[in-house]
Amino acid sequence: MDLLFTVIVLTLLSGLAMPFGALLAKIEHIHPSWLKSELRHSVIALGAGALLSAVALVLVPEGTSNLSPLSACLAFTLGGVGFMLLDILLKKINTPASQLVAMLADFIPESIALGAAFATGSSSAYLIALLIALQNLPEGFNAYRELKDGSSMKSISIISSFIGLALLGSLSGILGYTFLYDLPKVLSVIMLLASGGILYSIFQDIAPQVKLEKHWSPPLWAVFGFMFGMLGHMLMH
């Protein structure tokens, strides 16, 4: 029961990085225009680095440990293809919530993996929680801007909905802890599907937005994001 409570708390806290990122996006207008642009690109790059570290250090190593090479590659590829099809669909229906959907597509399977990691006593459990929070912050930032610019939703409504989504992460964590801890192959497939989708998102939606003419620091934040994940991995091992 203590571990389940830990899962609920950590998934909730990592999910609350989404509304915190939205709050950051809400107050960014107080800066000069040049810093505003620099901030946006830096936050995007930070998210890309955190996502990449989640794939390289946790999701792929954990996911490949219980599957054959062929099965692992198939799951990884299907994840990328699935995100591509989702991206195409969102573009066709022209919804202002595409970033929000992409954020949930990362957050839910990772929260499931977090719950299962605690149930199995995996040493990567706390690292997964850290990486989820690191990537939810910039994703919440971007999703808020997209919804604010493309819909009539008020700021308080957007931020409140993000808080509600944090609760969805806790439910996903409970699912992983309760039902998937003794189904390692199913969990591995979920991790690799998420990995392929995340990698697709990095190069399709995130990386092209990092470069900023005559500003060289935003891509460095991708390095920082990956470094945070690497540091956590080294500390846990």
What features would you describe in this structure?
- This protein is an all-alpha fold and 237 residues long.
- It is built from nine helices and no strands.
- The protein has helices spanning 2-15, 17-27, 33-64, 69-93, 98-119, 125-150, 155-179, 184-210, 218-236.
- Helix 2 packs across helix 6 (125-150).
- The relative contact order is 0.24.
**Shape, please?**
globular
The termini sit apart by 26 Å
Please provide the ordered H/E string of secondary-structure elements: HHHHHHHHH
Proportion of β residues? Answer: under 5%
Radius of gyration: 17 Å
Query: Overall mean pLDDT score?
Result: 79
Find the count of extended strands (DSSP E, 2+ residues).
0
Low confidence ranges: none
Largest sheet geometry:
none
- How much helix is in the residues? over 70%
The number of helical segments is: 9
Query: Class by helix and strand content?
Result: mainly alpha
List keywords for this structure.
single chain, 237 residues, mainly alpha
Topology at a glance:
Layout: H1 2-15, H2 17-27, H3 33-64, H4 69-93, H5 98-119, H6 125-150, H7 155-179, H8 184-210, H9 218-236
Helix pairs in contact: 1-5, 1-6, 1-7, 2-6, 2-7, 3-6, 3-8, 3-9, 4-8, 5-6, 5-7, 5-8, 6-7, 6-9
Summarize the structure.
The protein is mostly helical and 237 residues long. The chain has helices at residues 2-15, 17-27, 33-64, 69-93, 98-119, 125-150, 155-179, 184-210, 218-236.
